[in-house]
Design goal:
Layout lengths: L2 E8 L6 H17 L4 E4 L26 H13 L2 E11 L2 E9 L5 E6 L24 E3 L4 E4 L8 H9 L4 E6 L2 E3 L4 H22 L3 E5 L1 E4 L4 E4 L3 E3 L5 E4 L6 E8 L2 H8 L23
Parallel strand pairs: 1-2, 2-3, 7-8, 8-10
Antiparallel strand pairs: 1-15, 3-4, 4-5, 6-7, 9-12, 10-13, 11-12, 13-14
Helix pairs in contact: 1-2, 3-4
């Protein structure tokens, strides 16, 4: 296919897991009605962002993958003929949990999962308390409509992750994410943080000659202390913004992605072809010094 229609679901969540799943399914239906062929949901869409506190009770939110949520979404994917990208809290075994995205093809089949590799531990983002770093490596998934690469939130800051995923043959890069502002911050800080977040992901698009789809949650959580900043966006293969969501509204949008543009961009801006892979061995070091 030369073009694909991508649905982006930016929504608020509640403390009711079933309510959030039902809402996400309704938005997948809306996106499909608008022509979407691939629909991406935001990070951990079945719950509030629970990593703001270290609370053992929150482990009860986790589930097996495949499991109840993927079962429900597989039925919807098959019914609508759409690919669904679903970010979930995975219980792998007793005491072992991951931040994981499942990919469901347009025929309802389960294609597999990607486990988040980079795990933050910042104030209000205590993910290392909950999540074990992914051990599946970087992944691409050959869906009916495109070969897609999946990375999750904190992964978005790392050019190495996007490069490897691109080199594995991704046509489009997807980032389900959950990030926001501390509501005590000033507007200049807010703007700087959002611009950094968007810029780094657009740079992955430029460096790899790939469209990037970043889908973020929106709304106030953590008793009003955190405003998830929305701002979901889509770029073409040269990093040009094709769509930019608001910072304060739920949105279900469908964006046209030209898959053939990557070949054109990579021919004229040959960053992949000109890579000096013979010189990159030092990148595997933690820091380049004498120790």
């Amino acid at each position: 296919m030369s073009k694909v229609k991508v649905g982006m679901v930016q929504m608020t969540c509640t403390a009711n897991k079933q309510e959030n799943l039902d809402k996400a399914i309704a938005q997948v239906r809306e996106a499909a009605a608008k022509g979407a062929q691939i629909v991406c949901l935001q990070e951990l869409f079945t719950s509030l962002y629970f990593c703001d506190v270290e609370d053992y009770d929150n482990f009860d939110l986790a589930e097996k993958i495949p499991g109840p949520s993927t079962d429900a979404l597989q039925t919807v994917a098959k019914e609508l003929g759409v690919v669904i990208i679903a970010s979930l809290f995975e219980k792998r075994a007793e005491g072992l949990y991951h931040n994981t995205t499942a990919v469901l093809d347009a025929d309802g089949s389960y294609l597999g999962k990607y486990r988040k590799m980079h795990i933050p531990d910042d104030p209000a983002y205590y993910e290392k308390f909950y999540f074990t770093p992914g051990d599946l490596g970087y992944k691409v998934f050959k869906t009916k409509f495109a070969t897609i690469g999946i990375l999750i939130c904190w992964d978005q800051w790392y050019p190495e992750a996007s490069r490897i995923t691109a080199l594995m043959g991704a046509d489009i890069m997807f980032y389900p994410t959950a990030i926001g502002w501390d509501t005590t911050q000033d507007e200049e800080t807010n703007e700087d943080q959002y611009n950094a977040w968007q810029t780094i992901q657009r740079s992955h698009s430029v460096a790899n000659g790939l469209p990037v789809i970043s889908v973020n949650r929106v709304g106030f959580e953590q008793e009003g202390r955190m405003k998830f900043w929305g701002g979901s966006f889509a770029t073409n293969a040269q990093g040009k913004l094709l769509y930019l969501a608001s910072h304060d509204k739920e949105e279900t949008t469908v964006v046209d992605i030209d898959l053939k543009q990557s070949d054109y961009i990579r021919k004229h801006w040959p960053f992949l072809r000109d890579r000096r892979i013979d010189s990159y061995q030092p990148i595997t070091k933690r820091y380049i010094d004498e120790d």
